[in-house]
From TrEMBL:
Signal peptide extent: none
Name by which UniProt lists this protein: Dolichyl-phosphate beta-glucosyltransferase
Domain Glycosyltransferase 2-like: 78-260
One GO cellular component, as annotated: endoplasmic reticulum membrane
Gene3D superfamilies named in the record: Spore Coat Polysaccharide Biosynthesis Protein SpsA, Chain A (3.90.550.10)
Gene coding for it: 100633549
GO molecular function: dolichyl-phosphate beta-glucosyltransferase activity
Membrane topology summary: Single-pass membrane protein
Organism: Amphimedon queenslandica (Sponge)
Pathway(s) this gene product operates in, as recorded in its UniProt entry: Protein modification; protein glycosylation
Ribosomal protein keyword on record: no
GO annotation terms (biological process): protein N-linked glycosylation
Transmembrane segment boundaries: 12-36
Superkingdom classification of source: Eukaryota
Amino acid sequence: MAVLPQDLSLFSISFFFLQLLVLTSSSALIILYFYLRFTTSRDPDLSRAESEKSFLDPNDGTRKPFPLISDPPTVQLSLVVPAYNEQDRFPIMIKETLEYLHKRKQRDSEFTYEILVVNDGSKDNTSKVVMEYVKKEGPDRMRLLDFVRNRGKGGAVRAGCLSARGKRILFLDADGATDIKGLDELEKAMNSVSSDSTSPAIVVGSRAHLEDEAVANRSFFRNILMYGFHFLVFFLCVKGVRDTQCGFKLLTRSAVDRIFTNLHIERWAFDVEMLYIAQCLNIPIKEVAVNWQEIEGSKMIPVFSWIQMGRDLLFIRLRYMFGFWTIKAKTS
Ligand SMILES: *[C@@H]1O[C@H](CO)[C@@H](O)[C@H](O)[C@H]1NC(C)=O
Ligand SMILES: *[C@@H]1O[C@H](CO)[C@@H](O)[C@H](O)[C@H]1NC(C)=O
């Protein structure tokens, strides 16, 4: 126990506070240990409802199973688009994306791709809107994975990437905030880390170059929160990636296989856990600047969410530290 000092010399007072600090932090750690122990499920919840294991082929009205991530790839590129209540913004985003892909196909007839939209239990007509495009493009080029309930962006990205056919898999936001043309730069960077496309590697789109400018326009308080968040990411989980949160990331199929089968977090902080796992597995990560615009109706991050994210980061780290979560390295 910390005992109030008899004499009030500087030494004994500092010693008292030191004792107090050690005592409170160790009790906090013990409380967190038991709290996390009883609230943490050990394995990622990769289970899916029966209807989530297949997609609707609008040509013949039948459902066909998605492939497994362990199957060999059958297209060069998969674009995985998580969508939650995106009926209004999706058509704008998909128009630009299809234009880009069609142009690329014209230039290079060997180029093969698919778009896999994951409707994350939307309350609006997202899945209807998406199905209209699936009908037009055909199920070989475009598919819909329709969640029966909302799971969060991490859950949607994970299921989508694990159901994709691509040699390389890009996930991108349904609001079209990132210019799809940035994919060219991501692929160039990918070629330099994983030329054969089979070794695991990640290239992340980054808005860090824009953040430097935006700092001047944001309130002091928001900047403090932002720097606090960056510091926590760096200190607790991921080193050497400036923008972990940009929803524009390219992975090789083997990286998806190793990382997403280990991913627990289904909500906002999933990007951080994903990169944390990658660094634990020594998977190379490259960061490439992308064009990004704040889209009207963007899900602005409220102050409360920053605090929640800070807590999530701490909990991610502690769960791995306490051994509640482990990373299973595949040998294949
Ligand atoms: C979804 O579509 C139905 C009919 O197609 C319409 O009545 C409804 O208002 C739409 N919902 C939203 C949120 O727009
Ligand atoms: C900052 O605000 C000024 C004026 O309000 C604007 O002209 C400028 O484009 C803004 N910069 C950024 C990076 O948003």
